[in-house]
Amino acid sequence: MSLTHHASGQLFGYTTLPEENGYWGILLPRPTDQTEKSAPDAQDVVQEITADHLVFDVGHSVSDRGFLLTLFAPMALIVAGFMVWIQFPEPHPEAPQHIQLIIGAMLGALAAAFGFTAYRSARKPLPPNVYISRPLRKVLAWQEKSKTWLALDYDTLWPATYARKMFTTSGSSTLYALTLHQLKPGTRKIEHTVTPAPLRGTPDQCRAIWEFIRCYMDGKPEDLPPIRLVPSIQNPQSWMARADRTVFGGLIDDDHRIKFKDIVFAYFVVYFWGTVNYWGERAACWIERTAPRTPLPDWLPPSTSAEQTASLYRDIQPTPTQLQAQEGTLPHMRRRWLICGVLSTALWGFMFGSLVVRLWLLGH
To answer: HSE (CB half, 13 Å, CA atoms) of 3?
Structure first.
């Protein structure tokens, strides 16, 4: 693949699957390939595993919606308040009355746009996670545009890892996506693409997740390594532990402390992003817990009971420290998030406060 094709694929998405590894990413063994399997590893991103289906957590994808909610909700209130305020003072003797009404209408429209954005961020239905069904041997993914479920035949999929350049307020980084492709018959043109698991930091981590999927589909439960499930979204107190896992990933250890080997970089990223998006992450966890969800298809086999699942798949039970974290009572984790919360409140309070002062001065 040429560098131009690679750049185009990064910007607009790939339409054909390359035949060789390259700039774009790495081809992985297909489900039916008899190649030697590498060690499976769920990378601590499994949300649910039963004899019927496997689901990975993609909670970090809600962070953007949390950020938009905490940004535009205050903006809507500030602009709406200013709109009401300018309508009641005594009109300037030299200012035409219709000018004041036009400005009020413009501010009202702006406040409505901000409010609608905040509302959609909070209440827009969340797309279901990708379901990997073992009895059906299908990968089930929700298609937002067509509002239908897509069922891909697992045995005909072409897996690959793609490199993706990500840009955020804390800088840029290269992450890798495990993608499963369905190709048009007789060609290498991509017909459908599904990303079942969250982005990872290295291609090897994507490969380990894919091997975990292969082992789940065609192996025995005892062949899988022990699994550490992501903290439940249903517990409001677990938002800090959940954010540690889904947002900061490898920078936080199993006891929810910043890893010493990356101490300078990790401290900067954790405290910088925690300061910028503390309220956004809290809002994201609330959205993930309360937003409407698209129902699962009727033809999806019912889940196995929790007792049967526990006897089939080995899960790593949380340590006392991790249980404290999931209940929101772990002292050093609470202290770190409290510092981020205070700094975040000061930062955004100053920004919104400055906006209020400027609007007040503008009205005088």
So the answer is: 0
State phi, psi for 229 to the nearest 5 degrees. -75, 150
DSSP string, 81-118: HHHHHHTSSPPPTTS-HHHHHHHHHHHHHHHHHHHHHH
**How far is residue 11 from each of residues 183, 255, 301, 363, measured CA to CA in Å?**
21, 38, 38, 44
| Mean confidence (pLDDT) of the chain | 84
The whole-number pLDDT of residue 118 equals: 95
* 3-state SS assignment for residue 136: coil
pTM of the model: 0.81
**Residue 329 CB neighbours (<10 A):** 11
Q: In what order do the strands lie in the sheet with 25-27?
A: 25-27, 158-168, 171-183, 190-194
- HSE-up (13 A, CA, CB side) for residue 57: 24
Tokens of 75: 């903006």
Nearest CA to 239 out of 293, 283, 269 is that of: 283
Q: What are phi and psi of 95, to 5 degrees?
A: -95, 125
Alpha-carbon Rg for the chain, nearest whole angstrom, is 24
**Whole-number pLDDT of residue 170:** 47
Least confident of 73-77, 80-84, 158-162: 80-84
Lowest mean pLDDT among 41-45, 121-125, 310-314: 310-314
How far apart (Å, rounded) are the C-alpha atoms in residues 351 and 344? 11
